[in-house]
Amino acid sequence: MMKKTVIVFVTLLIVFGIPFNGYAYAFEHIVKPSVSTTYVPPEKSREELYQDVFMTLLLPYIQDEVDKYYKEYLTTSPGVAPYGVYILEADRVNGYRGFDFRLKIELHPYVGPHLSVGTDYITLRVIPFYNVKVEKFEHITSSELPPNYQDIIKKKLP
Fold first, then answer.
1. Has residue 14 got a pLDDT over 70?
2. Residue 20, CA distances (Å) to 6, 26, 143 in order
3. Phi and psi for 43 in degrees, rounded to 5?
4. Distance from C-alpha of 155 to C-alpha of 158, rounded to nearest angstrom
5. Residues 80, 107 contacting (CB under 8 angstroms)
6. Strand order in the sheet with 131-142
7. Tens digits of per-residue pLDDT, 104-129?
8. What is the pTM of this model?
9. What is the largest distance, in Å, between two alpha-carbon atoms of the chain?
10. Which of 21, 101, 103, 30 is nearest to 62 (CA)?
């Protein structure tokens, strides 16, 4: 009986104690905003809800810029998760109650099981009547991909 208990215990340790390489890598590299003063709204707040709606509406513009930048470096386009986009700066271009906005956002595009390929900043202009214009794309840092994702690299990221 003792021998069976030891075998079961060791088996459980092996199964639950040693994660698969890709998942271990992904969990070790969970990306938080790089700027410590970045405001993150309280969980389940109305403000978080509005920010999530807003980011979802902006996501096609963000993803398009990511596609343009990374096509030179990777064979597959990294994804962008709306919950991983952080607002660094937001202002009204025309002053109080003006509806011409400039946003600087931070994002962490990823491949596979959310393996970050780097950190990017995008400055967007949101103008009345549904016009969104990208003013600037900045690649800030590059992240190393694990060995099993090296085949998607066309050219080393700067």
1. no
2. 23, 10, 20
3. -60, 140
4. 9
5. yes
6. 86-92, 101-107, 118-127, 131-142
7. 999 999 999 999 999 999 999 999 98
8. 0.77
9. 77
10. 103
